[in-house]
Fold:
Amino acid sequence: MTSSGADGVAPADAGAAPGLVNTVRRIGSALSLSTWPPRLPPVTRPPTSRPTPAQP
Structure:
């Protein structure tokens, strides 16, 4: 992925191209992680096996 992002880049910019590719990948991952959790179903706790104490 990084090497394909650096193809066709001028030799003077060859050091910056992979850094830019990695930065875009990290931003994309952060955006993906921030948008998916709200779409997931809520997690519920299973009922406990202990009975609740009786109220006096």
In short: The chain is about 45% helix and 0% strand. Residues 45 and 51 are 16 Å apart (CA to CA). Helices lie at 2-5, 16-35. The chain has a mean pLDDT of 77.
